[in-house]
C-alpha cells in the first residue's frame, strides 16, 4: 500500500520500494522509519505510531 495508515497492526515485516528498487526491508519496528519513508517517497515525513497504527505526514 502507499498509505501507511492501512498497514495492519499484526504485520511483522515491511518492504519499501522506489522505482521498483528496494529502499529498505526488514522487521517493521526497525524498518518503518521517517528516514526510510523519505528514501521510498523522495520527500521528508513525520512518522508516528499509536496502538499499532502508523500515520505519516509530509514535512515542508
Helix content bin: 10-25%
- Overall tally of structural domains: 1
Q: Rounded to an integer, what's the Rg over CA atoms?
A: 11 Å
Mean of residue pLDDT?
94
Uncertain ranges? none
Along the chain, the helix and strand elements come as EEHHEE
Structural class: alpha+beta
Instruction: Please state the overall shape, judged from the principal axes of the Cα atoms.
Output: globular
Q: Quick one: how many beta strands? A: 4
Strand percent estimate: 35-45%
The biggest beta sheet is recorded as: 2 strands, antiparallel
Report how far the terminal alpha carbons are from each other.
Answer: 23 Å
Strand order of the largest sheet: 1-2
Quaternary state of this entry equals: single chain
User: Total helix count?
Assistant: 2
Q: How would you sum up this structure in a few lines?
A:
This protein is α+β, with helices and mostly antiparallel strands and about 60 residues long. The chain contains 2 helices and 4 strands; from the N terminus they run E-E-H-H-E-E.
Strand-helix topology:
Layout: E1 13-18, E2 21-27, H1 28-31, H2 34-41, E3 45-50, E4 53-58
Antiparallel strand pairs: 1-2, 3-4
Features:
two-stranded antiparallel ribbon, 2 helices, 4 strands, 20% helix, globular
Describe this entry's structure for a reader.
The protein is an alpha+beta fold and 60 residues long. It has one domain. The chain contains 2 helices and 4 strands. The chain has a two-stranded antiparallel ribbon with strand order 1-2. The chain has a two-stranded antiparallel ribbon with strand order 3-4.
Amino acid at each position: 500500500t502507499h498509505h501507511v495508515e492501512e498497514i495492519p497492526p499484526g504485520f511483522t515485516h515491511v518492504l519499501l520500494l522506489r522505482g521498483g528498487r528496494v529502499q529498505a526491508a526488514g522487521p517493521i519496528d526497525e524498518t518503518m522509519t521517517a528516514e526510510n519513508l523519505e528514501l521510498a517517497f523522495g520527500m521528508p515525513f513525520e512518522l508516528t505510531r499509536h496502538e499499532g497504527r502508523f500515520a505519516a505526514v509530509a514535512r515542508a
